[in-house]
Amino acid sequence: MSLDNFQLQGRTALVTGCNKGLGQGMAIALAQAGADIVGINSSAPDQTREIVTSLGRRFLDLRANLAETSGLEDLVEQSLALTGKIDILVNNAGTIRRTDAIDFSEKDWDDVMNLNLKNVFFLSQAVARQFIRQGGGGKIINIASMLSFQGGIRVPSYTASKSGILGMTRALANEWATRGINVNAIAPGYMATDNTAALQADPDRNAAILARIPANRWGLPDDMAGPVVFLASSASNYVHGHTLTVDGGWLAR
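Structure (tokenized):
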């Protein structure tokens, strides 16, 4: 084993939802390891593109409503314009709705499930087909959650979707491992992003969360760098169907 196993020069990574937060952090980490980046976002990823290109890597900016499955094959075809191939897919785009389960609406259920789970399956399917056409396999990295393992409160559709990600990661790994396709996931803990801004700003909730985290701090996008590069690189070639927790020890408590 050498550090060369973690290098991504000559590879192309497709990353959804990389305009900010964890997605941006992972896209930058992959570029730092040598990968060119295709970003699929609903809004302009200007800062991400600027940082990736400053590293000497190429960046292709694609826009899509990833809550809809129509057009996913077209997105894969457009992605090929960057380098003619795709080697890595990071399914990061997601959303959350917070409402008591007794009052949870069908729209909030569908909005979360469509983006967080349904789209992840069908984009993975489209990219896996491209991997097979190319030959040589590829890497698919899904973004799970602590709520892939726990129930949570007031987020029933988010919990269902992230529990589904854990199971789907295993199911796809079972089918595609023989084709050289690694399907794994990363489950972030409490991360300091826009999605958790309200929790961070609430003194009582913030204190309760920190008291439960052995590392005694919120996670940062940089904390996703090592895990995503590992799972995207040849260093993880014999890792299939695994969900790697990056949680400061939350689940160990």
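The radius of gyration is 17 Å. The longest helix spans residues 106-134.
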